[in-house]
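quick one before i forget lol
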Amino acid sequence: MENQQLYQERQKVILIVFLTYILPVLLVFLEVIPFSWRFYVLIFAAIVVVAIAYLYQFSPVELGFTNHNLKKSLTAISLPTLILTGFMFIYYLTHGSRLDNSAYQWLFYLFFVGVSSPIQEFLYRGFLFAIFKREKFATWVQIVFSTLLYSFIHLIYKDIPTLVFTLIIGIIWGWNYAKFRNLYSIIISHSLLGAIAILLGLV
């Protein structure tokens, strides 16, 4: 009986993931939804997920919004963040920009740091880990699924290096979050690396 109930709950989670994480990306990728609407789609998905998190009665702590382990998490994520930042600057100095992002003004970067990065981390680390843990998925499954879904959203850019980069950094962020369950440090790392990558025209 308990196994049957767990199976049903996991089916519900799979449906939630498909409708909120996979279908919107496919619609943008297939240009059913215009690419220029991507951030609106992200915000809409976040609103839906917030509603689902409320229905599941997740606490802020379960979603990673806590000061617990903040220092340890920041310490652990700082080295890979600095290493990847160094690689990006080396690539930029030796190869130049891959993309022309000159159209992005300072308001875009404020939006990315203050809105987009926190929303993405809530969606792809905080909520996913919480709902996967609630349904007793193994930790490695939480890391792998959240990483694949995070990389998958970047399919809309139709750029292989971006997919590879987000897969690598997604694993690093996923491992850190799985160990420390603190979203703030991941948001800081995401904001920094993402803003630099966009500024240098690498993604």
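fyi The mean pLDDT is 94.
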